[in-house]
Amino acid sequence: MQERDTLENTGHNLTIKERKNSTFTGINKIISFDDEEFLVDTTLGFMLIKGENLEILKLESFQGNLALKGKINSLEYIDDKQTDINKTSFVSKLFK
Question: Region 56-63: what's the mean pLDDT?
Fold first, then answer.
């Protein structure tokens, strides 16, 4: 619990440079990922990142930092209501 408290105190920020390189802070963990989609748990809730040729450049799990490369097409924060609606699709992606 102390690690999560530390991450929540650091805040959540994102930077995207020319849709090719992106950095994120406040990442608790990566739930699932492939070269077109990342589902991550942030200090502000779940975030879905969609794009093309996505790759992890750097992951600092203790600090909650994530750097990705690849073309970003969309970012979406998922509320609890949306999670209930999309629960089946998230579960099915986890067990592909």
Answer: 93
Domain boundaries, the chain: 2-94
Which H helix or E strand runs over 81?
Answer: helix 80-94
b (16+ CB within 10 A) / e for 41-76: ebbeebbbbebeebeeeeeeeeebbbebbbebeeee
Number of H helices, E strands in the chain: 2, 6
The pTM for the full model equals 0.73
Report whether CATH 2.60.40.2000 matches the domain 2-94.
yes
C-alpha span between 65 and 71 (Å, rounded)? 19
